[in-house]
């Protein structure tokens, strides 16, 4: 079996390459709107499956397709990507000095199999000032990110500690994804080009 990553995210490509997986990419564009009354785990699972299924529609025979979706949850509510500066600053200030959850769903779709799982990580921010949130917006980093921050980038300075999977917060939980790839007979740890 050969793997396709259904993602336009450079972060997910880097994470999957980090564990020595060989894959092609089918960039897909899925509507990520939350349905009325939809809870966080069903939501991320549905979107990850939709990405994998859209990628599978473009796939060749003998290919299985991986899709993922990451979102931020505060007090049980889904916090998506920011619309503008005010939205991003408000999101960041609501996360200030508190613990929120980052959940990533991963889905794998093939001709004879569909699997999905969700990984939840607690992330605790130190206290932030409105001014530093405004300066952070001006860097351009928060714009395409759930929760308006990137733990792997400049936003690292906001994070006091995490409890869970770092790679899941960035966009793809590597330990759990490797287990899923084994089930689908996809090799990891290719080393000859490293
Ligand atoms: C919380 C957090 C989110 N993010 C990112 C990960 C995800 O890419 C993004 C959430 O959006 P997603 O919709 O999960 O992914 P995407 O739109 O970037 O890519 P695609 O749908 O094509 O696969 O936020 C970080 O990079 N770092 C973080 O610390």
Automatic annotation (TrEMBL):
Cofactor or coenzyme needed: a divalent metal cation
Keyword check for Cytoplasm: yes
Site residues, Important for substrate specificity: 11, 70, 152
Active-site residues, record numbering mapped to chain: 69 (proton acceptor)
Subcellular location: Cytoplasm
Role of this protein: Nucleoside triphosphate pyrophosphatase that hydrolyzes dTTP and UTP. May have a dual role in cell division arrest and in preventing the incorporation of modified nucleotides into cellular nucleic acids.
Cited NCBIfam families: maf
Enzyme Commission number, as recorded: 3.6.1.9
Annotated protein name in UniProt: dTTP/UTP pyrophosphatase
Keywords for this protein: Cytoplasm, Hydrolase, Nucleotide metabolism
The keyword Cell inner membrane is annotated on this UniProt entry: no
A single MF term (Gene Ontology): hydrolase activity
Pfam families per the UniProt record, alphabetical: Maf (PF02545)
Source taxon at top rank: Bacteria
CDD domains, per the entry: Maf
Gene3D superfamilies found in the cross-reference section: 3.90.950.10
Catalyzed chemical reaction(s): dTTP + H2O = dTMP + diphosphate + H(+); UTP + H2O = UMP + diphosphate + H(+)
Family stated for the protein in its record: Belongs to the Maf family. YhdE subfamily.
């Amino acid at each position: 079996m050969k793997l396709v990553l259904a993602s336009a995210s450079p972060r997910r490509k880097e994470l999957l390459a980090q564990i020595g997986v060989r894959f092609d990419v089918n960039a897909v564009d899925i509507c990520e709107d939350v349905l009325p009354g939809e809870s966080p785990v069903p939501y991320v699972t549905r979107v990850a499956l939709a990405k994998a299924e859209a990628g599978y529609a473009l796939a060749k025979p003998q290919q299985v397709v991986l899709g993922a979706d990451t979102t931020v949850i505060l007090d049980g509510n889904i916090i998506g990507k920011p619309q503008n500066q005010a939205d991003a600053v408000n999101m960041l200030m609501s996360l200030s000095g508190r613990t929120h959850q980052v959940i990533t769903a991963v889905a794998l779709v093939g001709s004879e199999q569909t699997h999905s799982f969700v990984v939840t990580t607690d992330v605790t921010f130190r206290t932030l000032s409105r001014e530093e949130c405004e300066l952070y917006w001006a860097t351009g980093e928060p714009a395409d990110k759930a929760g308006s921050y990137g733990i792997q980038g400049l936003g690292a300075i906001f994070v006091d500690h995490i409890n869970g999977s770092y790679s899941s917060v960035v966009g793809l939980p590597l330990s759990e994804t490797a287990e899923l790839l084994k089930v689908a007979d996809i090799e990891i740890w290719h080393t000859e080009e490293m």
